[in-house]
Design goal:
Elements lengths: L1 H13 L8 H10 L3 E2 L7 E2 L9 H38 L5 E2 L7 E5 L5 H10 L5 E3 L4 E5 L8 H17 L9 H9 L3 H15 L1
Antiparallel strand pairs: 1-2, 3-4, 4-6, 5-6
Helix pairs in contact: 3-5, 4-5, 4-6
């Protein structure tokens, strides 16, 4: 009973809400507090809180995983992931329509295209279960290689090549895809307008 009382007390102490008087104040919170970002090469980004996509629970989970694996287990998985990353890089280089962005020394591999719409490729990959992140300047997408990808590198490269060939043969947005959003946002010169669009998306879709 005492344990339950302590849990309820913690919920009361740690749980809180912020209520805004009107939508204009919410808009200012996003823009003035830098939660809506339009110029980052990592793509368009908007977050309702300063924690963004890095809440404390992920830090705790990462620490628990490292303790569970130990140094040898961590190094073993690292070698496997790095090898998978190199195989993906080589596979991307073999697709004529694509180019590698920068020099990926670790496990994040970004690639784009000067021939086809890379965001259309990304939408097709999403329909196949691969969820990569769209980037900008230059327009590109990236995969963050993890242990889950290690057994499926060949499947990914096949799906990537198939997606590229599909876009070559049938260019155009995929129904329900995000290519039109990223394509249009990149062409809007007024970045303040893009920021407001991000905030509107956050308020209405999340």
């Amino acid at each position: 009973m005492l344990q339950n009382d302590i849990i309820l007390l913690l919920i009361k102490l740690l749980g809180c809400t912020v209520r805004w008087q009107n939508g204009r104040l919410v808009l200012l919170k996003y823009i003035l507090c830098q939660y809506a970002v339009t110029e980052w090469s990592g793509g368009l980004y908007v977050s309702p809180t300063i924690a963004g996509s890095r809440p404390g629970s992920l830090v705790a989970g990462a620490w628990a995983a490292m303790l569970s694996l130990g140094q040898e287990g961590y190094l073993k998985h690292t070698r496997e992931i790095m090898e998978a990353s190199k195989r993906i890089q080589q596979g991307v280089k073999e697709i004529r329509e694509l180019f590698i962005v920068g020099r990926p020394d670790m496990t994040i591999v970004a690639f784009g295209s000067n021939i086809i719409d890379i965001f259309e490729v990304n939408d097709i990959l999403s329909s196949k279960g691969w969820h990569l992140n769209p980037l900008q300047r230059p327009n590109s997408i990236h995969i963050c290689v993890t242990l889950q990808h290690v057994p499926f590198v060949d499947y990914f490269l096949k799906d990537l090549n198939d997606a590229v060939q599909t876009v070559i043969q049938n260019p155009g947005p995929v129904s329900g895809g995000l290519a039109p959003i990223y394509g249009a946002a990149g062409k809007i010169p007024d970045r303040g307008m893009v920021s407001e669009l991000l905030v509107d998306y956050m308020d209405n879709a999340c």
